[in-house]
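step=encode ok
step=design start
structure_in=
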């Protein structure tokens, strides 16, 4: 499968007459393929992007274009639709962000303050948990879980983690709301679940491209200690962690499982 990482955005530089330039950057995950082109802001539209994609592709267009910047997404989606290319919004465009950093272009995005999770979705209780790295995939792969998100690049074996390393996570017991919560999370596209210290402390879900949601708040010292341990364990397994939604603690039924990785 041919996958490109693409960014299209206005740049700090200007042309000789002082007009704003937009730059299109295209690369693959290894940066063995790179393509760049610029245009004036007046020409920055989906037709120009589509034409450049065709020029960059040569005989074979990509199957998937990955986009991390919300401001680029709609233009690239239109261009992709015109060329029958699937466009995937994702924060996981490491090669492209590295290239932007080398060019000294900003790749950090403004993120809104976290919003409360919709009340009608919240479960009955939650807890911190761990799984041995060897169990992360095998424990759930043969279970009939309606929503299962285990990306290939996040499998512990592909991150070089020893089988005994404890992978931290959060389990939410959703009760009757369990499937509704799991479906909502699937649409929100979870990226990472982080402990944030404050007054009160909380768990914040990073989702989509820039979305942030308050999953839980707490002031109990024991829970805070557990949260700090959870955050430390993430550091020991390259940011890997999980989110599990199930109706209750019987271990019989699961609604959704996501393998996540904290952003750098």
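sequence_out=
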């Amino acid at each position: 499968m041919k996958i490109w990482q693409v960014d299209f955005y206005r740049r700090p530089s200007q042309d000789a007459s002082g007009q704003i330039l937009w730059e299109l950057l295209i690369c693959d995950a290894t940066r063995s393929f790179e393509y760049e082109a610029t245009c004036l802001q007046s020409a920055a539209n989906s037709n120009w992007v589509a034409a450049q994609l065709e020029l960059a592709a040569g005989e074979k267009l990509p199957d998937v274009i990955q986009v991390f910047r919300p401001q680029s997404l709609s233009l690239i989606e239109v261009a992709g639709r015109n060329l029958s290319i699937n466009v995937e919004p994702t924060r996981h465009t490491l090669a492209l962000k590295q290239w932007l950093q080398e060019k000294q272009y900003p790749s950090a995005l403004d993120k809104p303050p976290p919003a409360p999770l919709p009340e009608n979705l919240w479960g009955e209780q939650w807890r911190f948990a761990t799984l041995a790295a060897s169990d992360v995939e095998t424990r759930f792969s043969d279970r009939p879980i309606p929503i299962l998100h285990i990306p290939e690049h996040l499998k512990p074996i592909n991150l070089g983690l020893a089988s005994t390393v404890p992978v931290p996570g959060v389990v939410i017991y959703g009760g009757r709301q369990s499937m509704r919560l799991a479906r909502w999370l699937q649409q929100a596209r979870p990226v990472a679940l982080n402990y944030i210290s404050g007054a009160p402390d909380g768990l914040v879900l990073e989702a989509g491209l820039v979305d942030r949601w308050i999953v839980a708040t707490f002031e109990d010292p024991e829970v805070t200690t557990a949260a700090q341990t959870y955050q430390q364990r993430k550091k020991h397994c390259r940011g890997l962690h999980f989110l599990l939604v199930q109706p209750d603690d019987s271990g019989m039924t699961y609604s959704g499982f996501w393998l996540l990785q904290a952003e750098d």
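step=design ok
step=annotate ok -> The mean pLDDT is 92.
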